[in-house]
């Protein structure tokens, strides 16, 4: 079996952890598997390099920043190869030039374009454990680029796809995907399986287990992903196209406090107003989430939407600046809100899921401000002080803590 | 003018020094020169990386060690590019993959084979200051290799040769080549010029200004080398084929305490004995320096030679092991010796130089144990407690502290 294993920065933060990871790799190798490992930079290395750079130049060019940061992963892979040597195992570390990890030209946030497999296959053929730098690649100018947040997960999935690996294991500091955040819901349960689509919704909604791009890529190339802990031997959660068991009604419930509601009140009820409003925001790369438009009355309508809390001030300023075009009478804004979502691939064929969610909130006396739904998700906006309670009552209502639901 | 400027690790050890070097580079660029910069890893970076590696694996493979260490120079070049950005100057950092610095296969001590100039010339054409990682290259397996001690000097000279640069400036923490070590001889004088051959003798003899390999390379490709201080604007010393002024009788005097004398006594006076003796040592890469063979008497002869002090124990053990072949009766060994040498390209056409040196030592009551001469150098072995005095009396005898000698 060909296995791609990815370990994040905290999993290789120091000597002990490097050796711990080496032992995990050794186990698979000794069982006769072919192993390709993807590593991030150790612990705080990336942050330290950024700090060092900013002391010299507060706004360094992204090209040089990538040149600097890519050294972090190269150090990780070399050290891991040395750790494997102490276990008597043959291994070789490779950076993006050596593998041939080709990306788009953009620095600091590039996308993977192509991965050459020749060198990796050659080394696998030689019985080497292959250790590859995550998070980075080279563009058509032969310059280093980095893949942005969650980049190493994406590298791992892409290598698994390119090598046609049997599975891709992503090791993190949690032991899988849960029905809810265990810090919020004490009886949250680890899921054995979850579909790509569900995982995508969870990832977007802020369950910080896997980055969206890696899940999208896994779905596209049908890579069997496993999320598991680097600190225990627990089984983890498998992310795949179709789950073996019957489609889960609801897989999990997640919350996101980093959200704010903006309402533009008294807009003339004419065509094109929503377009004008949101084009102002999209031009500045401000993502709008839930959108709600009131029915026109007295020749005016209200448009309410949510943005990430960090973007509120900028969004409000941009809209105020164009109020004459949008024809709104005033802007209201509320940061004390929270998004609560349930995710489950079964809900599209099951009526009553939304009802059950709303009922649970009603029973707890929690008011719903806005609602948004997709094929595998229902999101509501509530006052943020109820976040923890809301997650708990919904988790309870769907009996997510119990194995047979 | 195309100038290659090399700065060592201590010259870029921290933020302030990086910016100081950036200003030196800026000065040349603003005067209209094309500038290529070669950098070592910052300060103690290399030592720290070695320490980190050895904590994980006391004897890591050289291949992985090179993979680890090469990150040090890559960080330096990226940070320097950022520093130049703050001065508003266009620059680009390049590592060995990007330049195409090709070396022999050996890890940790490779030799340069070929340097591609395409990318560098392209960047120079775009008016960029080009900043290149020293000390490293890639071999035919596309693996990083490092060049061993003094590697960055060698990179700088090789780039200057490949680019046909007008000069190659090596910046160090001293402001040039001196007639003697200024810490030993208070009135030692900085030389304006010195020939490659003289510099080679000085480098070999332990004047730690330039590494031998870089001087050999400069001689081979006739690169005008300048050794100067990164901390001052002093002119430095030019190393070239022929010095403008009349050939210097004696350019400088140097000492080397890292030397020991071994005598193999009572060897049968038969052909092949010297060969047998020294082949034992050369097989183990132990360099032998001065060799003296006594005239055969009573059917036996003595062979005396010097090796670096670090190699004494190994050398003695190797010889003892083969004493039956060598037919020696006993081995004597003395670590308390020191080599004193005078170097000067004029001495080959001037009689009396050796005499004057010996006279100076005789006047000071210093006994000479061994003598060795080359075209541009005379070396004597003395008791090491007289080292400082010997250097001073010789410096004085040749009036090296005076400008017109």
UniProtKB/TrEMBL annotation, chains A, B:
<dbReference type="InterPro" id="IPR041740">
    <property type="entry name" value="AKii-LysC-BS"/>
</dbReference>
<dbReference type="InterPro" id="IPR005260">
    <property type="entry name" value="Asp_kin_monofn"/>
</dbReference>
<keyword id="KW-0547">Nucleotide-binding</keyword>
<dbReference type="GO" id="GO:0009090">
    <property type="term" value="P:homoserine biosynthetic process"/>
</dbReference>
<dbReference type="InterPro" id="IPR001341">
    <property type="entry name" value="Asp_kinase"/>
</dbReference>
<keyword id="KW-0457">Lysine biosynthesis</keyword>
<dbReference type="InterPro" id="IPR054352">
    <property type="entry name" value="ACT_Aspartokinase"/>
</dbReference>
<dbReference type="GO" id="GO:0005524">
    <property type="term" value="F:ATP binding"/>
</dbReference>
<keyword id="KW-0418">Kinase</keyword>
<dbReference type="GO" id="GO:0019877">
    <property type="term" value="P:diaminopimelate biosynthetic process"/>
</dbReference>
<dbReference type="InterPro" id="IPR036393">
    <property type="entry name" value="AceGlu_kinase-like_sf"/>
</dbReference>
<dbReference type="InterPro" id="IPR002912">
    <property type="entry name" value="ACT_dom"/>
</dbReference>
<dbReference type="InterPro" id="IPR018042">
    <property type="entry name" value="Aspartate_kinase_CS"/>
</dbReference>
<comment type="similarity">
    <text>Belongs to the aspartokinase family.</text>
</comment>
<protein>
    <recommendedName>
        <fullName>Aspartokinase</fullName>
        <ecNumber>2.7.2.4</ecNumber>
    </recommendedName>
</protein>
<feature type="binding site">
    <location>
        <begin position="172"/>
        <end position="173"/>
    </location>
    <ligand>
        <name>ATP</name>
    </ligand>
</feature>
<feature type="domain" description="ACT">
    <location>
        <begin position="262"/>
        <end position="345"/>
    </location>
</feature>
<dbReference type="GO" id="GO:0009089">
    <property type="term" value="P:lysine biosynthetic process via diaminopimelate"/>
</dbReference>
<keyword id="KW-0067">ATP-binding</keyword>
<feature type="binding site">
    <location>
        <position position="46"/>
    </location>
    <ligand>
        <name>substrate</name>
    </ligand>
</feature>
<dbReference type="Pfam" id="PF22468">
    <property type="entry name" value="ACT_9"/>
</dbReference>
<keyword id="KW-0028">Amino-acid biosynthesis</keyword>
<comment type="pathway">
    <text>Amino-acid biosynthesis; L-threonine biosynthesis; L-threonine from L-aspartate: step 1/5.</text>
</comment>
<dbReference type="GO" id="GO:0009088">
    <property type="term" value="P:threonine biosynthetic process"/>
</dbReference>
<feature type="binding site">
    <location>
        <position position="178"/>
    </location>
    <ligand>
        <name>ATP</name>
    </ligand>
</feature>
<keyword id="KW-0808">Transferase</keyword>
<dbReference type="InterPro" id="IPR001048">
    <property type="entry name" value="Asp/Glu/Uridylate_kinase"/>
</dbReference>
<dbReference type="Pfam" id="PF00696">
    <property type="entry name" value="AA_kinase"/>
</dbReference>
<dbReference type="InterPro" id="IPR045865">
    <property type="entry name" value="ACT-like_dom_sf"/>
</dbReference>
<keyword id="KW-0220">Diaminopimelate biosynthesis</keyword>
<comment type="function">
    <text>Catalyzes the phosphorylation of the beta-carboxyl group of aspartic acid with ATP to yield 4-phospho-L-aspartate, which is involved in the branched biosynthetic pathway leading to the biosynthesis of amino acids threonine, isoleucine and methionine.</text>
</comment>
<keyword id="KW-0677">Repeat</keyword>
<dbReference type="GO" id="GO:0005829">
    <property type="term" value="C:cytosol"/>
</dbReference>
<feature type="binding site">
    <location>
        <begin position="208"/>
        <end position="209"/>
    </location>
    <ligand>
        <name>ATP</name>
    </ligand>
</feature>
<feature type="binding site">
    <location>
        <begin position="6"/>
        <end position="9"/>
    </location>
    <ligand>
        <name>ATP</name>
    </ligand>
</feature>
<feature type="binding site">
    <location>
        <position position="183"/>
    </location>
    <ligand>
        <name>ATP</name>
    </ligand>
</feature>
<dbReference type="GO" id="GO:0004072">
    <property type="term" value="F:aspartate kinase activity"/>
</dbReference>
<comment type="pathway">
    <text>Amino-acid biosynthesis; L-methionine biosynthesis via de novo pathway; L-homoserine from L-aspartate: step 1/3.</text>
</comment>
<feature type="binding site">
    <location>
        <position position="73"/>
    </location>
    <ligand>
        <name>substrate</name>
    </ligand>
</feature>
<comment type="subunit">
    <text>Tetramer consisting of 2 isoforms Alpha (catalytic and regulation) and of a homodimer of 2 isoforms Beta (regulation).</text>
</comment>
């Amino acid at each position: 079996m060909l296995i791609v294993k990815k370990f994040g920065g905290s999993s290789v933060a120091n000597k002990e952890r490097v050796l711990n990871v080496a032992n995990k790799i050794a186990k698979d190798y000794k069982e006769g598997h072919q192993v390709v490992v993807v590593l991030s930079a150790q612990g705080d290395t990336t942050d330290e390099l950024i700090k060092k750079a900013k002391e010299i130049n507060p706004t360094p060019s992204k090209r040089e920043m990538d040149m600097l940061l890519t050294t972090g992963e190269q150090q990780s892979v070399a050290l891991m190869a040395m750790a494997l040597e102490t276990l008597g195992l043959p291994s070789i570390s490779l950076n993006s030039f050596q593998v041939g990890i080709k990306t788009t030209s953009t620095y600091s946030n590039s996308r993977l374009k192509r991965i050459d497999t020749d060198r990796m296959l050659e080394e696998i053929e030689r019985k080497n454990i292959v250790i590859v730098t995550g998070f980075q690649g080279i563009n058509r100018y032969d310059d280093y680029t980095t893949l942005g947040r969650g980049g190493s997960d994406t590298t791992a999935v892409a290598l698994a796809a390119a090598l046609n690996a049997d599975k891709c294991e992503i090791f993190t500091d949690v032991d899988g995907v849960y029905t809810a955040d265990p810090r919020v819901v004490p009886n949250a349960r680890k899921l054995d399986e979850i579909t790509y689509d569900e995982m995508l919704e969870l990832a977007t909604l802020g369950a910080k287990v896997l980055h969206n791009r890696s899940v999208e890529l896994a779905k596209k190339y049908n890579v069997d992903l496993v999320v598991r802990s680097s600190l225990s031997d627990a089984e983890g959660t498998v992310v795949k196209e179709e789950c073996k068991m019957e489609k889960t009604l609801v897989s999990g419930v997640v919350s996101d406090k980093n959200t704010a509601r903006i309402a533009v009140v008294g807009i003339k009820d004419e065509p094109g107003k929503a377009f004008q409003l949101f084009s102002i925001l999209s031009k500045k790369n401000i993502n709008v989430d839930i959108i709600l438009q009131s029915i026109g009355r007295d020749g005016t309508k209200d448009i309410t939407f949510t943005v990430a809390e960090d973007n509120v001030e900028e969004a409000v300023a941009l809209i105020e600046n164009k109020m004459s075009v949008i024809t709104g009478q005033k802007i209201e804004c509320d940061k004390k809100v929270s998004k609560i979502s349930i995710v489950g691939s079964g809900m599209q064929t099951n009526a009553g899921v939304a009802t059950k969610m709303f009922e649970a909130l009603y029973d707890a006396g929690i008011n719903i401000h806005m609602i948004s739904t997709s094929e595998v998700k229902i999101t509501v906006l509530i006052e943020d002080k109820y976040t923890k309670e809301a997650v708990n009552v919904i988790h309870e209502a769907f009996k997510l803590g119990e194995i047979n639901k």
